[in-house]
Amino acid sequence: MKALVKTKAGPDGMRCTEIPEPIPGGDDLKVKVFACGICGTDTHLLHDSYPCRLPVIRGLEFSGVVTEVGENVSQFRLATGWSH
Q1: CB 70 within 8 A of CB 24
Q2: Phi/psi zone of residue 48: left (φ > 0), alpha (ψ -120 to 50 degrees), beta?
Q3: Could you tell me how far CA 37 lies from the centroid of its own chain?
Q4: Residues of the chain with pLDDT under 70
Q5: What is the pLDDT of residue 13?
Q6: 2-69 is classed in which CATH architecture?
Q7: What is the 3-state secondary structure (H, E, C) of the chain?
Q8: How far is CA 69 from CA 33, 49, 65, in A?
């Protein structure tokens, strides 16, 4: 899957790259993201003016559908009839 990842200091340290698709645990959801935005913190991370531990995946504002639920999850359900 594609992700915006900050891997090293400096503006050239943030790139859109392929990463392994996550496997949800018992208390987790997996969401197929249809759209994602960036926020002010992302621009600060780009210019190293906000602390973080590298590598860090960015993108907080997103929309999508639930495609997997962990065995302990009871208040969410799988999306049906969606395709993208």
Answers
A1: yes
A2: left
A3: 10
A4: 82-84
A5: 93
A6: Alpha-Beta Complex (3.90)
A7: CEEEEECCCCHHHEEEEECCCCCCCCCCEEEEEEEECCCHHHHHHHCCCCCCCCCEEECCCEEEEEEEECCCCCCCCCCCCCCC
A8: 15, 36, 11
- Can you name the residues that pair with 6 across neighbouring β-strands? 14, 56
Name the residues annotated as catalytic: 41, 44
Measured distance CA(14)–CA(84) in Å, rounded: 27
Q: Write b or e for each residue in 9-43: b if 16 or more Cβ atoms lie within 10 A of its Cβ, otherwise e.
A: eeeeebeeeeeeeeebeeeeebbeeeeeeeeeebe
Sign of the CA dihedral running 65, 39, 22, 19: positive
Distance (Å, whole) CA 55 – CA 7: 4
